[in-house]
Structures are given as C-alpha cells and as structure tokens.
UniProtKB/TrEMBL annotation:
This is Solute-binding protein family 5 domain-containing protein. PROSITE patterns: PROKAR_LIPOPROTEIN. SUPFAM superfamilies: Periplasmic binding protein-like II. Gene3D superfamilies: Dipeptide-binding Protein, Domain 1.
Length: 457
C-alpha cells in the first residue's frame, strides 16, 4: 500500500519571494475547460477543486467519517432513516449562503434513482426516510462528484464551500482568491499554462512546478527547493478510442508497452509495472503486466496517436512504422497542445484514436477513477461503454469499504476484456517545493493536490 505519510516542517531557510507576496503560483501543462465537481478526475481539475469545493463528509486519518459542513448527523442501524443538520454561516460566496435547501439538492443527486424515500425539513435539518437501506449514501457524499456546488457569474465555473473561489478561467491562466483573507497564508492562487508563460519568469517565486514534467523544471529550482521522491496514486495508460471492436482489440494486443514506455519516459530502475490500469495503493490493483496476444493481419486504417511529448514524435513514429511492418497496425503520430488535448478528450471525443493520459486516483474516491470509462457523459470514448455501468454504479454506491477491492478488480478486468485501455506504469517522480513553506504536509495524496489554504507563510 502506498499509504505512507511523511510529515515535514519546512522551515524558511531561504526566501527570494517578497514577504508581501501572498500568491501561490503554479506552472501547469494545460488547464481545464470548466470548473465543476465533474472535473474531479482531471489532474488540474482536482487540484482546483481541492481549494474551491468541500465534500459533505470525509474520512479522517483514523478512517472515521467526519464533516466540516454538518453540525450533527445520525442514522438508524439499517440506514433507512438518516438525519442531517448543517452548520450555520456557511457560504459559497459573500453574497450566497449555503442553505439546507442546497444540502437537499446536493443529496438528491447522490441518491439512487430507483430508491423511494421521503424527506422533511426543520430549520437547518433534513430527515430522510428510505424504504430500503441507504448506507451507501454517506460514502457517496465523500466524493468530490457530490460536493455542494452552485453556478457562478463566470461561464463554465461553479463555486463550492472551499476556502477559495475562481475569478478567472482561460487557457493561459486560472485565478482563485481566498474568500476570507489571512495574514499568515496564501490569499490567491494562479495557475499558468507553461506553453503561454514567459519562460524568463520561471524562477523561485513559483511555488509549484509539480504539474509539469521534471525535465521542464529549471535546474536552479531543483537545487534550491526541497525535493521528495514519491510513488503516487497515478498511472500512465494508453487509451484506445477506436470504435471498431476488432481493430481496437488488435491494436491493444500488438502495441509494445516497453517500447512506448521507454520512448515517452525513458528507462527507470524503480518503475512499477501494473497488471491493470489502477495504481498500487488502490484496493484491487496488482503489480504485473497485461495479457497481450498479437496476431498479424491486413494493414489497418491509419490510427491517430495524439502526442503531447513533441520532442519524442520522431521516435514514436519510427516505432509505429516498425509496428505496421510487423503487424499491419498503422499509426500516425500527431502533435497536439495540452489545451487541444483537453478539448478533444473532454469535449469532442474525436480527432484521436490513441492517447497517453495520466489516471489520477485517491483512496477515498476510487469510483471517480473509472468515471472516464463508465460515465457516459464524462467518458474518454466516442462510443458506448454502458457495459461498465453496472459495476461502476455499485462502486459509486458501496455500503462498506471492503466492497471496493472486488469491484475495482472486476471493472479493471472488464476494461481489459473490451480493450479500452492498457497500463504503461505507475508514476514515481520527484516533487519540488520551496524551502520557505511552513507546516507543509507531504503525503501521496497531498502531493498531488496540496491544500493551499492550510499552508503558512
């Protein structure tokens, strides 16, 4: 299990950023098309939602259910009755309070569609009576997909109950401000797309370089910042967005994982090979290699490999040219920016047949890992994957954490059976953070999505 937590107190030993600068600046590879709970699977989406939204429930370090939104809650043993009372003075913005009606709307979206129930309201409390057990509901309300959220005046942006709110959303920059200013912390967050950022400004005034490749981080930053080598809950996978079943199967079986992995990421002694697409640390995941059985056939139609690592285009094309000679599978490598890929993957679902994304996972929201495969509104594919919905729905509505492992394994096997995706490796990387940060918790989940509001200057 990759569930070790390393806690460091990073005392200010050097500081080049001005003492009055309370902006947390991030360099990233692309942004997101919108800010809503549905973007929880996207790396940058989850990064932002960590600051802007808050789930109704969460699991504390001891694994117990807790809440910063509920004043009180209770259930009967059979979970046919659930009582929830909100705290007062919770706000989406200064002008928009969080009400018990908002809680009711949020919960209604999390309740199973077929489940019959009644709900009554008394001041800040809701009382639910279900005909059958609703034990799944409390777990479901720990997922970012079901965090309270309201539309803002900014197109494609929603506000949550987190400490920050988004004030600007564009391809080049995403800006957030803190709702209640503090004297000893960060009061704004800016995420800059590296493709449109002035490279001359890449200095130690940037707090977070960890959304870009390690090779893109300036050498002086690597020398001046604290660094931590950590295996994280993220896997690199190949997506096969190929509508024809037989063509998808053949491509899945014939593509060389060691070759593609070596070209894109180089050779690594500490790499973790995965049997399925989910990373080790998620229940139901396994170390190993996928099963592939390649058979040569007639030349296929040209498949488009959407490439984000532009300096590797020539090497990739040489490999795919060899693949065509050996197997008949034809692939053309095309370069795309991260902004273009975001639009293709999350909006149009077209323009590519193969792409290598990173699959983010968290131990307390495993179902979100599979949303891009099973959820028909959010999936990677331009064809139906409804055969995944049954188990995905069960995972979204589990009653007990012990049910996670067998369901994850079942969905993983189904994704492999239908040749939707194949794993390249689990991600292990160096993370860099300024030495000036104080009381900064370093851990597998926090490294991916730091809680900026909790960091002190």
């Amino acid at each position: 299990m990759l569930k070790y937590l390393l806690l460091f107190s990073l005392i200010a030993t050097s500081c080049s950023k001005g003492n009055t600068d309370d902006s947390w600046d991030v360099i990233s590879n692309g942004g997101v098309p919108r800010i809503t709970p549905k973007m929880a699977l996207s790396n940058i989406g989850a990064y932002i939602l960590k600051q802007t939204h808050q789930t109704i429930f969460f699991y504390d370090k001891s694994g117990n259910l807790s809440s910063s939104i509920m004043k009180d809650w209770s259930t009967t043993r059979d979970y046919k009755e659930i009582n929830l009372c909100t705290k007062k003075n919770l706000h989406f913005t200064n002008q928009r309070m969080f009400t018990v009606e908002d809680l009711k709307i949020t919960i209604s979206k999390a309740i199973k569609k077929e489940q019959k129930y009644t709900v009554s309201m008394n001041k800040n409390c809701l009382k639910y009576n279900f005909e059958t057990s609703a034990k799944y509901l409390l777990y479901k309300l720990t997922l970012l997909f079901h965090a309270p959220s309201v539309k803002s005046k900014i197109k494609d942006v929603e506000h949550g109950l987190g400490k920050f709110m988004v004030t600007k959303l564009s391809d080049a920059k995403i800006s957030l401000i803190r709702k209640q200013r503090v004297d000893n912390g960060y009061n704004s967050i800016n995420l800059y797309d590296i493709t449109s950022f002035d490279k001359k400004k890449l200095g130690n005034q940037i707090e977070d370089y960890n959304r870009i490749a390690v090779s893109e981080i300036p050498s002086e930053i690597k020398e001046d910042y604290n660094n931590f080598n950590v295996s994280i809950l993220k896997s690199s996978i190949i997506i096969f967005n190929i509508k024809e079943n037989e063509l998808r199967k053949r491509t899945f079986n014939c593509i060389s994982l060691p070759k593609v992995r070596s070209i894109l990421f180089g050779e690594s002694k500490d790499k973790i090979n995965l049997r399925y697409i989910t990373p080790i640390g998620i229940p139901g995941s396994e170390i190993g290699t996928p099963v592939q059985n390649c058979n040569r056939g007639k030349n296929t139609r040209p498949l488009i490999f959407a490439n984000w690592k532009h300096d590797k285009k020539e090497d990739l094309q040489k490999y795919f040219d060899t693949l065509k000679v050996k197997t008949g599978v034809a692939v053309i490598v095309k370069n795309f920016t991260f902004a273009q890929l975001n639009d293709m993957v999350w909006k149009t679902k077209t323009g590519y047949d193969l792409v290598v994304p990173f699959l983010d996972s968290t131990q307390n929201a495993v179902a979100e890992t599979f949303s891009a495969f099973a959820n028909q509104e959010q999936k990677f594919y331009n064809f139906s994957t409804t055969y995944l919905l049954g188990d995905y729905d069960l995972l979204m509505n589990i009653d007990n954490k012990k049910e996670i492992s067998p369901l994850v394994k079942k969905i993983n096997k189904n994704i492999e059976k239908h040749h939707l995706a194949i794993p390249l490796k689990q991600v292990t990387r160096l993370f860099y953070f300024p030495k000036r940060l104080k009381r900064f918790a370093i851990g597998s989940d926090l490294l991916e999505h730091p809680d900026v509001g909790a960091i002190e200057l």
